[in-house]
Amino acid sequence: MIKLNKNDHVYDFSKDNQPVDVCNSGDTVIFNTKDCYSDLVVDQDYDWDRFLIKINPVNGPLYINNAMPGDTLLVKIIDIRLNDSGIIVTKPYSGVFKNEVDKKITKIVNIKDGLVELSSNKIEIRPMIGTIGTAPIAGSIAANTPNNHGGNMDNKMITINSIVELPVFVEGGLLAMGDVHALMGDGEVNGSGIECGSTITVQIEVIKGRRLINPRVIYDGRLYTIASGIDLDMASRIACKDMANIIKQYNGIDQSDAGMLMSTVGDLQVCQIVNPLSTVRFGIDLKYINYDIKDER
């Protein structure tokens, strides 16, 4: 089993990043991630003026043999093991409340027996991966930014037992991930979930000749299309069009029938609204689609 070193991380997704290890299709790989603040914030009195590095380190990148542009990576999330504590932060310049907050507040929360305590509430954890992606076709995309390569989608459906479908744009794919949360609500409206370091176990498979435009996720019997845009309207249109195209192709129906199905049994949901681009997902039960995750369509 391949295990990536915790200190092997980058702050962007780029074809120019040197891979830290190599795997084959079908291999199981362990990613060891730092929290989104690079494990630097260790107490509630942390001096944020000292925080001068970039955010969202992602463990990797990993080169996958035989992954070529036009292929798809299937990343099955087998397990997410969290550190014993997490961080949640409020900042004047972050989230939808930035104009109503005048100082930085940091809380360190313990994670024990599958629970966290926050604002006198004991809440069951729901580990999820905030940032996961491949290298874009050109240039560099900061790890705090989502796009069609994946990135900082903050999609809480990317969790244990989910399968993430990612497009491959460059040789080897260059898969990296991080920004794990013990718990995060849809929208991440305060700009922070409960941020944690983690150990992620995944199984990776290359599907040859299966070209994706944007990431997808399969979780708990549902298929989700994921899209990011300059605002929620743009992201929503992309995610809906992606799903409509899937339904038309796999069910052999036209746009009108696909739209009717989506309007009656589908759900458009917000992933996050606080990153440089907004992200949404459109979900529908797989029982309504003749979907084959390894089909080249």
Word description of this protein:
The protein contains two helices and 23 strands. It has 297 residues and is mainly β. Strands 1-5-19-7-16-20-21-23-22 form a nine-stranded mixed sheet. Strands 2, 4, 6, 12, 14, 15, 17 and 18 form an eight-stranded mixed sheet that branches. A four-stranded antiparallel sheet has the order 8-9-10-11, with no helix packed on it. The longest helix has 20 residues, at 232-251. The radius of gyration is 19 Å and the shape is globular. The mean pLDDT is 94.
Give a short overview:
This protein is mainly β.
Produce the secondary structure layout.
Elements: E1 2-3, E2 9-10, E3 12-14, E4 21-23, E5 28-33, E6 58-64, E7 72-82, E8 85-90, E9 105-112, E10 115-118, E11 121-124, E12 128-133, E13 140-142, E14 146-147, E15 150-151, E16 163-167, E17 175-183, E18 194-196, E19 198-207, E20 216-219, E21 222-229, H1 232-251, H2 255-265, E22 267-272, E23 278-285
Parallel strand pairs: 1-5, 4-6
Antiparallel strand pairs: 2-6, 3-13, 5-19, 6-17, 7-16, 7-19, 8-9, 9-10, 10-11, 12-15, 12-17, 14-15, 16-20, 17-18, 20-21, 21-23, 22-23
Helix pairs in contact: 1-2
